[in-house]
Amino acid sequence: MSENQNIPWKRLSVEAAAIVGSILLAFAIDAGWQEYVEDQRERQVLNALLDDFETTKANIKDWRNFHLAVQQSNTKLLKAVTSSEITLTDDEIGRLLSKLSWWDGESHFSTGALNSLVYGGELSLIEDDALRQLLADWPSQIQYVESQQRQDYDFFLNVWTPFLRENSYLPLQSTIATRRPGRPEDPTFVIDLQLEGTWSYAEMVASKEFHNILAQKSWIQFDILVAFDKADVLIDQTIQRIESRL
To answer: What are the residue boundaries of the structural domains of the chain, listed by start?
Structure first.
């Protein structure tokens, strides 16, 4: 009994409590540090996403202007060739054909940060539920927009070019300097040819096939513009969510 009385229970209890307390404090510090690291990582990712979406918004605006300009030229030509009397000269028709020979087939989305987040399995970094859902939905939204854009290139490759090759004179078209629609400051690219004789578009523009092709071209521009408008709304929503989180 005397041996038990000699054991310093009080001191041992204090020491044990101190050890437990230091362990708990270490866990708390570690948890706090992990939370800090995750918060910093989220901010880093959000800033990268914000840069990407602002770049994408500028790209969409630029290419929306392109498609509006193409649609304007297309409508002008379609109205002229379907009227009872064509008032456009061959030179004017040639310039319009050159403007309509531009196409849009590249991606306008800056997706480096988004791809890393979604496909890298880091979406859990985003604490805002609504923002996380928006970001998770973006790959399918991008796929939808790009599927509409592909119509433009497919049309150029499979419809427009074969028709012009069969019914017009491509060397002449190659000499017509036309800047990218919607971008008057862009350089022009032409082939320097010295052609003899003249060419008339009268028979080509009077054909029903040509009228149908222009109508199809108009549908495609409309589809792309609608897709761009939808994307622009989602971009604004996403940017607003990101900025509110930062």
So the answer is: 2-245
